[in-house]
Write a structure and sequence with these properties.
Blueprint (H helix, E strand, L loop, with lengths): L13 E6 L2 H11 L4 E5 L2 H10 L3 E7 L3 H12 L4 H4 L3 E6 L4 H10 L3 E5 L3 H23 L15 H18 L3 E9 L1 H8 L1 H16 L7 E4 L4 E7 L3 H17 L12 E9 L7 H16 L8
Parallel strand pairs: 1-2, 1-3, 3-4, 4-5
Antiparallel strand pairs: 6-8, 6-9, 7-8
Helix pairs in contact: 7-11
Length: about 300
């Protein structure tokens, strides 16, 4: 029998809890400290330093009063060159009275989820457990070199990251009873044209496509590369009419880089299609994600079901 009494204790997951209220910080630490290593701070620079200095950080809770500072920190985290920091889930602690538009803007900046204050002990602990477990799993994948969320050619989010972020957006939309729309962009003939025109042209062109699509939407909209010729915009809190406005804005931009009508050196035709997602009474987030996969399948897999 192996005596493990002298083995080192496994590192506990670390949580950074930033809030302007000392009483809330103390309450959160009391609730979480039995299961997690907890650092409480009262400013964004301290929260950033706590994340950088502790490699076991799994969740960042943000309840600071200055929304501009919160947004700046969220964007700093999401743009970090360190994948561990960049992929850390961020749960914003908000007043229940915060409007949906503010929450949607926070989601678009990179917030993962929300918890209202005053919070119940059981709800905060359950949220911390589930988020930390998911975060730890992603970080283990990252250590194996499997957690890449960016398309290497366009620097847009890739297909895996698209479905992850869409799931988070839909979870919030379901709770808040808000619509969500997608704009599918299929560049018909793109792969063949890029192969024909060579490696240098390919990289230059795909960099331009990424820049064009990244700047085409509203602040809360996000573009992803979901296939060799397929891209998709996630439009939170947006109905069909709002998605049409995004399409109207997008068409002249694509025409400007010769990727709309099939003329010019690329001979690529852009097909734009709106998919409106709204929850029926008994519909789950996974049901909606399945609808999106089914919508993409004919384009990505020639009408066949996707592998896996």
């Amino acid at each position: 029998m192996i005596d493990r009494r002298d083995d080192p204790e496994p590192t506990r997951s670390h949580i950074v809890f930033a809030d302007s209220s000392r009483s809330i910080r103390d309450s959160a630490k009391l609730i979480l400290a039995d299961e997690f290593e907890v650092t409480t701070v009262d400013a964004t620079d301290k929260a950033w330093r706590a994340m950088v200095e502790n490699s076991a950080t799994r969740v960042l809770f943000l309840g600071l009063d200055n929304q501009a500072d919160v947004t700046e920190l969220v964007k700093r985290v999401r743009s970090s060159t360190d994948a561990r920091i960049r992929e850390t889930p961020i749960v914003q602690v908000t007043a229940a009275s915060v409007d949906d538009e503010t929450r949607q803007l926070a989601l678009s900046a990179g917030v993962t989820d929300f918890i209202d204050r005053p919070f119940q002990s059981s709800i905060l602990l359950a949220r911390a457990r589930s988020t930390a477990t998911h975060s730890a799993g992603r970080q283990r994948q990252g250590a194996k070199g499997q957690s890449h969320d960016r398309d290497s050619e366009t620097r847009l989010g890739n297909r895996r990251y698209f479905f992850e972020r869409l799931g988070q957006t839909l979870s919030f939309a379901r709770r808040a009873k808000l619509p969500t729309s997608l704009v599918h962009v299929h560049f018909q003939g793109l792969a063949e044209s890029l192969d024909r025109l060579g490696k240098h042209f390919r990289q230059t062109r795909m960099t331009k496509v990424g820049q064009t699509l990244a700047g085409a939407g509203r602040r809360e909209d996000t573009a992803y590369r979901t296939g060799p010729e397929h891209f998709c915009f996630v439009l939170p809190g947006t109905g069909y009419a709002g998605a049409e406005i995004v399409c109207e804005r997008l068409r002249p931009l694509l025409d400007g880089i010769g990727m709309l009508r099939g003329d010019g050196i690329l001979a690529v035709v852009a097909q734009l299609e709106i998919q409106h997602l709204e929850f029926a009474e008994d519909q789950s987030v996974e049901d909606c994600l399945r609808q999106v996969r089914e919508k993409m399948a004919p384009i990505l897999f020639g009408g066949l079901s996707p592998p896996g």
